[in-house]
Design brief:
Blueprint lengths: L11 E3 L5 E9 L2 E7 L5 E6 L5 H12 L6 H10 L5 E5 L2 E8 L6 E2 L2 E2 L2 E2 L3 E2 L9 H6 L7 H20 L2 E2 L8 E3 L6 E3 L6 E2 L24 H17 L9 H8 L2 H12 L9 H12 L23 E4 L10 H7 L2 H9 L14 E4 L17 H4 L10 H5 L29 H13 L6 H32 L1
Helix pairs in contact: 2-4, 4-5, 4-8, 6-7, 7-8
């Protein structure tokens, strides 16, 4: 189940529309009650102790709708790693709570106690702060370096998403993220308390930011970057003390100095602008793990394109040095049915499948999942043929051919096109034979035709020479 995209509720719902089911928690933090909604397993209603004020109402409304303008990669991250608020709950005119997804089963596990195995319970990130032997004692998998790096990569990816959309989480700590012991994935909870741009003061003990020493400054994405750096060091080293002191152990375990350097700059910077961005920490962790972003550039933009590193037009056409097209081939390339065959890989010509495709293809933002948004440019053959008709791409949309536009993959119509008349079916080999036939009627005969004539002349000259010798001998003998 996806934690935002699969929500069965509208963006605004009356409290009576989410009947109470199994209770999850009571009087925990800012909530008075969290329960699983009846007849909707996997979806939770969180009710506040007091109605939200105007600022909170505005932030929640923006949060609920924000994934609609995110890239597909960001939406996938939201659906996988975040208990994103999907619905605002109203009791009359008061906003009294939100609906969010329950963490998937992978983030729960039974723990072994002295009395035996307990019921499955959520696994907070706090387990990564414990020694591996302690995890094994309660029946959990021993977290190795790869599991720890995977958890940190997920946390930093979430932090990068927040930074790019100016979302301030504020309360980063061990208890506000769950951990999957098998995959290393994380699931961040309490998303409904986030602010846009800044938020009200919140902080857990042991997470104080030296550049935000008191409550005179509201938390921002800059303070989030510090707490994520602390969380990164502690998750990778299982040391809860001073994160700067733990950096040496981190560098020894990862055998990579770049991540340690970035973390040190974040933890010791005296100005906010000197702190590395969360995207830089994420990239360093991905280098260590040998992974790349799943979709879209997580560090720079929120666009939907999955291949933004392709940023130009590429001209397609005959190979350099191939020369001008022969008359028969030029005629064939002007016919839409031929270009359709060439693009679909079913060419009926001898080696002409690539030479009759001309024009330009826009490769900007092109990916395997989505074709380019702009239409292909018309081919020169259609522009010079003097035909009139609809613009580029209309032939494939209508299912027929009426223009000479060069189709691109994704706009090529089905192969059930009308066959060409036999009289106009001309291949490269046929064109060459026709050219040789035309050449034989000129002033200069082909070399193969001149060989028999030259041989006959040689024989005649030899015979004349023999006859001359005979005549000369007869005359001399008579004298």
């Amino acid at each position: 189940m996806r934690s935002w995209s699969d929500s069965p509720f509208p963006s605004r719902e009356e409290l009576s529309g989410v009947p109470e089911g199994k209770s999850i928690s009571q009087d925990n933090g800012e909530s008075r009650l969290v329960y699983e909604i009846k007849d909707n397993p996997g979806w939770l209603a969180k009710l506040y102790k007091r109605p939200a004020d105007a600022g909170r109402i505005s932030d929640l409304q923006r949060l609920v709708y924000l994934p609609t303008v995110m890239s597909q990669a960001d939406q996938d991250l939201v659906d996988r790693c975040l208990a994103w608020p999907t619905t605002r709950l109203y009791d009359g005119s008061d906003l009294v709570g939100v609906v969010m997804a329950k963490a998937p089963d992978g983030f729960y596990a039974p723990l072994k106690a002295l009395s035996g195995w307990q019921d499955p319970a959520p696994l907070p990130l706090d387990w990564l702060m414990k020694p591996a032997d302690k995890c094994a004692q309660v029946g959990l998998r021993r977290p190795d370096l790869d599991l720890r790096l995977r958890a940190v990569e997920e946390l930093l990816a979430v932090g990068d998403l927040f930074a790019r959309h100016d979302i301030v989480y504020g309360d980063w700590s061990y208890r506000n993220a769950l951990w999957n012991q098998h995959t290393g994935e994380v699931f961040v909870i309490d998303m409904d308390s986030c602010g846009i741009g800044s938020r009200e003061w919140v902080e857990s003990p042991g997470w104080a930011d030296p550049l935000f020493p008191d409550r005179s400054r509201r938390p921002t994405v800059a303070s989030d970057s510090y707490k994520l750096a602390v969380l990164t060091v502690r998750c990778l080293t299982a040391q809860r003390q001073d994160p700067v002191d733990a950096l040496h152990a981190l560098e020894r375990s990862t055998r990579d100095a770049s991540l340690g350097g970035l973390l040190r700059r974040t933890l010791t910077a005296t100005r906010l602008e000197d702190r590395p961005k969360c995207a830089e920490l994420l990239e360093a962790v991905r280098r260590i793990r040998g992974t790349t972003a799943s979709a879209g550039p997580s560090a720079t933009s929120g666009s939907r394109a999955g291949a933004d590193n392709v940023t130009t037009w590429v001209k397609v056409g005959p190979r350099a040095g191939a020369g001008a097209a022969r008359p028969a081939e030029a005629t064939a390339s002007a016919r839409p049915s031929d270009t359709t065959r060439a693009a679909s890989g079913t060419s009926g010509t001898d080696g002409a499948a690539a030479s009759n495709v001309t024009g330009s293809v826009n490769l900007r933002n092109r990916s395997a999942a989505r074709p380019p948004a702009s239409a292909p440019e018309p081919s020169p053959s259609s522009a010079g043929s003097g035909r009139s008709g609809p613009g580029p791409g209309s032939a494939s949309a209508a299912g027929g051919s009426g223009t000479g536009a060069t189709p691109t993959p994704g706009s090529v119509p089905p192969t059930s096109h009308t066959p060409r008349p036999a009289a106009r079916s001309t291949s490269r080999s046929a064109a060459r034979r026709a050219a040789m036939a035309r050449g034989s009627s000129g002033r200069t005969a082909p070399a193969a035709a001149r060989r028999p004539r030259r041989h006959a002349v040689t024989v005649m000259l030899f015979c004349a020479l023999i006859a001359a010798l005979c005549v000369a001998r007869y005359v001399l003998g008579w004298i």
